[in-house]
Write a structure and sequence with these properties.
This protein is mainly beta and 157 residues long. The protein has one domain: Porin (Beta Barrel). The chain contains two helices and eight strands. It has an eight-stranded antiparallel β-barrel with strand order 1-2-3-4-5-6-7-8. It is globular and about 55 Å long. The model has no long low-confidence stretch (mean pLDDT 86).
Length: 157
């Protein structure tokens, strides 16, 4: 009788541990939550222009690198391309934040569009948790025209 009770107790104990296993294995990582294509408007400001230079239809492509880092590719019609690797993503109550990360951008010459030059650049940004279409990315290209600041946001209606 004691052996039977011990066997039943052991089975019940094992079942209890199995029932208490973690269910967070299916929870997407922070990187998974921000992956996607963001299409919007670029507003480029620089010291030689009093008004920002606006370009619609530019894009940012975010791909997963690790559970908490992503690769960001900026594709601009006027302001070239830049890939920023291993950008750290953090989460707050209402937003995801892309940490400031350095890389280079290939920007075409206005006089020779087929020729591009690499410039040092930094990117950072945020996107709202409740609406990924509520995003903001800022790119700084310090060595171009006295410093270019690119604000990439959803296109204004």
């Amino acid at each position: 009788m004691k052996k039977l009770l011990m066997a039943l107790f052991t089975v019940a104990l094992c079942a209890g541990f199995a029932a208490c296993s973690s269910n967070d294995d299916n929870e997407p990582s922070i990187a998974d939550k921000v992956v996607g294509v963001y299409v919007g408007q670029t507003a480029a400001s620089f010291q030689y222009s009093p008004n920002p230079d606006l370009t619609d239809g530019d894009s940012i492509i975010v791909t997963k690198a690790t559970d908490n880092t992503v690769n960001i590719e900026y594709r601009g019609k006027k302001w070239g391309k830049g890939t920023f690797k291993n950008v750290r993503v953090t989460e707050t109550n209402d937003a995801y934040t892309f940490a400031e990360t350095a890389s280079t951008m290939a920007i075409a010459s206005p006089h020779q569009p087929q020729v591009s030059k690499d410039y040092a650049a930094n990117i950072k940004g945020t996107t709202k948790k409740t609406n990924k279409n509520n995003f903001s990315f800022n790119i700084t290209v310090s060595g171009l025209m006295g410093g270019v600041k690119i604000a990439f946001t959803p296109k204004a209606n």
